[in-house]
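Note to self: keep these together.
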Amino acid sequence: MAMKVGFIGLGVQGKHLAINLAQAGYDLLVYDVRSEPLQELAAAGARIALSCREIGQHAEVVETCVLDDAQTEEVVNGANGVLKGAKPGTLLVIHSTIRPATIHRLAEIAAKQGVEVMDVPVSGSEAGAKAKTMSYMAGGSAAGLAKCRPLFETSGSKIQHTGGLGTGIRAKLAHQLVITLNMLGAYEGMLMGRKAGLDPEILTAVIREGGAQSRIAEGWAKRVIRPSSRRVFYKDLQLVLEFGHELGLSLPGAALAQQMLDAIIPADGKEATR
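Structure:
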């Protein structure tokens, strides 16, 4: 019998993660506040829930992939949230990039009714979910990861167990800091090269073959960034700065990257080298 799985949050990335689960043959029940992605999931073979509570009643493993802390709190512990229907033994996997404190608070609440929480942020965005090349940063028990690893493998084989609860999101925040500083460096470097009259393809080759090599910089000249990504990166950098403050760290690079996002990710979404 196929494992009963629930998936909440069918956005740009979550929709394709859920489609991969449906195509793999899991007994999948999904929920989102928008009808369009629900129709796509139904076409892929998933069943549609009327609430997050219904997801909790159905699933052995529930995956959530919503935008931020407020949405995560609502779908997990709201008046009609997962925990209102979940049975003891349910595994709740949070993919969203949110505050570590939120993960721990929800885990404490869930534990009172026998529900285990794992924080498993992902990297790869829409393209990675479609290509099944996603990366997972899994915080929580080894047993929990063993149970949900086959689910994750429907969208990618790069699954890193970062340690106990809360380590996945901590790793993701460090990851996002490195990404955005790479984006800032690529933006400024390619801008300088373009203004200096260099052919972007030649400059890309120089970067690829030299010490500045990075996946982000190499693809920057032809990169088209979804404008909505700006909101996500801004939110993630705000979390990075808050968490850095908790750790007593000064992170001026993160602050500068956040201030520069309007330039790095232009409103028209076109290549950010102007």
